[in-house]
Design goal:
The chain has about 220 residues and is an all-alpha fold. Helix content is about 80%, strand content about 0%. It is built from 9 helices and no strands.
Length: about 220
Amino acid sequence: MNELFTNVDWADIWQATLDTFYMVGGSLVFTILLGLPLGVLLFLTGKRQLLEQAAFYNLLSFVVNVLRSVPFIILLIVMIPITVVITGTSLGVAGAIPPLVVGATPFFARLVETALREVDRGIIEATQSMGATTRQIVLSALLPEALPGIIAGITVTAITLVSYAAMSGVIGGGGLGDLAIRYGYQRFQTDVMIVTVVLLLIIVQILQMIGDKLVIHFSRR
């Protein structure tokens, strides 16, 4: 093993793997906390929905689309001053989380909106006919019915965050991406590059398997 991977420091690989999990896990939590209500709001204010507000929806939709359209590598650089204000640094795990959250939140919000749109409208109308408030409809009907779709959206977002976290290595964000760039690319250590890529693929596969199992578990049979 050591003869095949002469440049690989396995202690560094282990730490970089942990850093990647910290970045993806931390940013995913904030992405869900921000993106879920944003997606619900997009759905509720959309056309023919409970709180239809065309002007507000168009404005909110425009902001979400703008944030989604900014390439993540550009977002990393643009957000450096804001990241420094929030975390005190633009480097390492802490410096990577704010741009990860900003990049993933609008993406996840759209997935939530799509999942909610797939809920049978008859369920909403039946809940309304029983005198339920908008809050009760959201909590008791919409979110439970859309749960499999939302979990699938969380899975897709988590996998996207893995690629974003790897990309943050360009500005010293830490994790496997940083290791791949500093050693695999800049120092031409191919063995380091291979190990980091394989580990990223394994992480993605694990996330996808967990997500698929949860979707099946919460789906109605």
